[in-house]
């Protein structure tokens, strides 16, 4: 907080860049949905926009189970950023459950 600034807020710095006080940090909320296979993960990624209005395309990640080399033993993760924390974790868990998946708890 800036004691000499109007309203205690910092004024824009040089070149119009606004200095962000420490208490206005950007949230790094992410949701990880675990799906049984790639097809399910791709379907979930597409359906997220329709069901939840997600603008940013989720990231798909293959997650091989420890000690397993067989591609059949791989789970797929759908990683979704939610910087404003507007998505309901329980709704995402139920949504992933429609494809035999779940939302991983942080």
Explain how this protein is built.
By secondary structure, the chain is an alpha+beta fold. The chain has a single domain, classed as 2-Layer Sandwich (Alpha-Beta Plaits), CATH 3.30.70.3450. Helix content is 23%, strand content 22%. It has helices at 38-52, 89-97; strands at residues 30-35, 59-64, 74-81, 102-104. The chain has a four-stranded antiparallel sheet. The longest helix is centred in the middle third of the chain and has 15 residues, at 38-52. The mean pLDDT is 78.
What would the keywords be for this entry?
single chain; about 110 residues; alpha+beta; Alpha-Beta Plaits; four-stranded antiparallel β-sheet; 2 helices
Strands, helices and their partners?
Layout: E1 30-35, H1 38-52, E2 59-64, E3 74-81, H2 89-97, E4 102-104
Antiparallel strand pairs: 1-3, 1-4, 2-3
